């Protein structure tokens, strides 16, 4: 009996010990400096970052729906948390984290997780880029020996003065960290597999200790157990409290789900259960806020490192949280030797990494660069919520314009007896023809001279009563002037359907017509549409060494 149990247990423990254990150690080394840096940038106690890393690894790792995703404190929430700490204080911010976790659990139980994926990717990318710029602008002041200002505009305008008053040793340490992170991806062999952030922070700390640099260092105010702070409710400002809860819940949920999608693209194992992932993330935020930790979300840098290190199951994420706990309990005091300028250099690098050239190129290529730019500027110079709402509104407006716009042209085909203008004319109307098209439609129709012989190629998938009336009225007037009108309909919607009832969009008949003619392009397109796009070479390369979008 005992031998059978050992044989049954061995196939389960084998992959864990061979693949997940080494991967968890690598992720632990990546998470340690990032968690401290994100906590300090958020205006929270430094150990709150380690609490969130422990809870994110153990709770979200065990309960979440993405087996290889690693959760913890993320740069994407830094700006939000810093604002909440400034407005409410740390303990109320912990209560906001707990309430946001409850809301995430309700999202997951309501089976609405996939709805979060409907947000335009360009808005999400721009949001992260804006957050990155805010972090970089704040932390460059710390790197130079000063303090971050209250707004992005103040950080920009007061930067020249801060440069003139720069503190030499701090600038050297921060620049050293950035230089190590930039160059680490070119380090060959086994040394290159050591996480760059860990090397940069350890090297700068060792130099600061060896040469006794006079620089500000991390302050912990006690042990990990001392950092546990029960949340408290606000005294007033309940409206702002509710907005904070909703903001943290939505941003953390979207960031976690998008990270899970990226993890699915990196490996061929089980796919993410998005609703379960939200439940796991919510449970982690409830636990983290209750214990005095930062908000938790799925983090792409740790997740991609986990996959690249060979993890096979969720045991890797859970064990990484255990390693953070095992380090923090006896050795957290070592963090007090870390120079603040070194962590500032790490955060400046992370912030700049959030502004990705591949995302800007994609936005430019797809015609969404205006949405990207407006969202970034809104996040940086207004606030995150207003910037995202402006970006979403602009993205929706642009999408509506693209969907409803109509291509309408008129061109002469030949000269008649009276000259070129009254010969044969051809009018092409393509797209969605609605009342929004009337200015262009009536202008083009009016450009056709009286008496011309006109052929109208109507290829639309939508036509409403207003557009139908404009075309019908013009046809009657043109025929009354001695001309002729031949309407040839090639679209999925007939012109007179606008008179039969409420207008509808009909795209199904396209597939039916192509299938009837033996054209298989539609079938191939549908198959391609169902397959998730593979990551670009730039996205694949980002997962090896350097911190990526959400820190």
Automatic annotation (TrEMBL):
<dbReference type="InterPro" id="IPR011547">
    <property type="entry name" value="SLC26A/SulP_dom"/>
</dbReference>
<dbReference type="GO" id="GO:0016020">
    <property type="term" value="C:membrane"/>
</dbReference>
<keyword id="KW-1133">Transmembrane helix</keyword>
<keyword id="KW-0812">Transmembrane</keyword>
<protein>
    <submittedName>
        <fullName>SulP family inorganic anion transporter</fullName>
    </submittedName>
</protein>
<feature type="domain" description="SLC26A/SulP transporter">
    <location>
        <begin position="17"/>
        <end position="368"/>
    </location>
</feature>
<dbReference type="Pfam" id="PF00916">
    <property type="entry name" value="Sulfate_transp"/>
</dbReference>
<feature type="transmembrane region" description="Helical">
    <location>
        <begin position="370"/>
        <end position="401"/>
    </location>
</feature>
<feature type="transmembrane region" description="Helical">
    <location>
        <begin position="317"/>
        <end position="334"/>
    </location>
</feature>
<feature type="transmembrane region" description="Helical">
    <location>
        <begin position="166"/>
        <end position="187"/>
    </location>
</feature>
<feature type="transmembrane region" description="Helical">
    <location>
        <begin position="340"/>
        <end position="358"/>
    </location>
</feature>
<dbReference type="InterPro" id="IPR001902">
    <property type="entry name" value="SLC26A/SulP_fam"/>
</dbReference>
<feature type="transmembrane region" description="Helical">
    <location>
        <begin position="116"/>
        <end position="137"/>
    </location>
</feature>
<dbReference type="GO" id="GO:0055085">
    <property type="term" value="P:transmembrane transport"/>
</dbReference>
<feature type="transmembrane region" description="Helical">
    <location>
        <begin position="238"/>
        <end position="261"/>
    </location>
</feature>
<feature type="transmembrane region" description="Helical">
    <location>
        <begin position="47"/>
        <end position="68"/>
    </location>
</feature>
<feature type="region of interest" description="Disordered">
    <location>
        <begin position="524"/>
        <end position="551"/>
    </location>
</feature>
<feature type="transmembrane region" description="Helical">
    <location>
        <begin position="88"/>
        <end position="109"/>
    </location>
</feature>
<feature type="transmembrane region" description="Helical">
    <location>
        <begin position="194"/>
        <end position="211"/>
    </location>
</feature>
<feature type="transmembrane region" description="Helical">
    <location>
        <begin position="21"/>
        <end position="40"/>
    </location>
</feature>
<keyword id="KW-0472">Membrane</keyword>
């Amino acid at each position: 009996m005992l031998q059978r149990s050992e044989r049954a247990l061995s196939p389960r423990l084998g992959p864990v010990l061979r693949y997940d254990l080494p991967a968890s150690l690598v992720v632990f080394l990546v998470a340690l400096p990032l968690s401290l840096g994100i906590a300090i940038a958020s205006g929270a106690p430094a150990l709150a970052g380690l609490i969130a890393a422990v809870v994110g690894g153990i709770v979200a790792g065990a309960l979440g729906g993405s087996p290889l995703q690693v959760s913890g404190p993320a740069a994407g929430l830094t700006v939000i948390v810093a604002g909440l700490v400034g407005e409410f204080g740390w303990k109320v911010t912990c209560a906001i984290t707990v309430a946001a976790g409850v809301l995430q659990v309700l999202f997951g139980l309501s089976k609405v997780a996939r709805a979060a994926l409907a947000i335009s990717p360009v808005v999400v990318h721009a949001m992260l880029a804006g957050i990155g710029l805010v972090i970089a602008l704040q932390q460059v002041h710390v790197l130079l020996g000063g303090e971050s200002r209250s707004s992005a505009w103040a950080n920009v305008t007061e930067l020249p003065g801060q440069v003139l008053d720069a503190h030499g040793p701090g600038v050297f340490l921060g620049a050293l960290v950035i230089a190590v992170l930039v160059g680490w991806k070119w380090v060959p062999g086994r040394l290159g597999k050591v996480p760059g952030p860990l090397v940069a922070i350890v090297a700068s700390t060792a130099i600061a200790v060896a040469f006794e640099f006079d620089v500000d260092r991390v302050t912990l105010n006690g042990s990990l157990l001392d950092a546990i702070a029960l949340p408290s409710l606000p005294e007033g400002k309940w409206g702002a409290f509710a907005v904070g809860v909703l903001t943290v819940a939505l941003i953390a949920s979207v960031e976690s789900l998008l990270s899970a999608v990226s993890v699915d693209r990196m490996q061929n194992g089980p796919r993410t259960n998005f609703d379960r992932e939200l439940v796991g993330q919510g449970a982690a935020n409830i636990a983290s806020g209750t214990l005095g930790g930062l908000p938790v979300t799925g983090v792409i840098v740790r997740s991609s490192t986990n996959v690249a290190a060979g993890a096979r199951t969720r045991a890797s994420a859970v064990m990484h949280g255990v390693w953070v706990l095992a380090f923090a309990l006896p050795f957290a005091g070592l963090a007090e030797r870390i120079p603040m300028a070194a962590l500032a250099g790490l955060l400046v690098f992370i912030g700049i990494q959030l502004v990705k050239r591949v995302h800007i190129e994609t936005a430019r290529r797809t015609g969404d660069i205006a949405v990207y730019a407006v969202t970034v500027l809104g996040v940086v110079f207004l606030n995150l919520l207003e910037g995202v709402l402006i970006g979403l509104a602009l993205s929706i407006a642009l999408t509506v314009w693209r969907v409803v716009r109509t291509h309408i042209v008129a061109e002469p085909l030949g000269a008649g007896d009276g000259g070129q203008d009254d010969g044969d004319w051809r009018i092409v109307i393509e797209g969605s023809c609605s009342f929004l098209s009337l200015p262009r439609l009536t202008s083009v129709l009016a450009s056709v001279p009286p008496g011309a012989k006109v052929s109208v190629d109507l290829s639309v998938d939508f036509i409403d009563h207003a557009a139908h009336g404009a075309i019908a009225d013009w046809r009657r007037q043109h025929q009354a002037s001695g001309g002729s009108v031949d309407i040839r309909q090639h679209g999925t919607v007939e012109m007179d359907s606008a008179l039969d009832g409420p207008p509808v969009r009909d795209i199904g008949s396209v597939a039916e017509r192509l299938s009837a003619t033996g054209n298989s392009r539609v079938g191939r397109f549908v198959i391609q549409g169902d397959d998730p796009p593979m990551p670009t070479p730039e996205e694949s390369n980002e997962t090896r060494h350097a911190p990526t979008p959400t820190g």
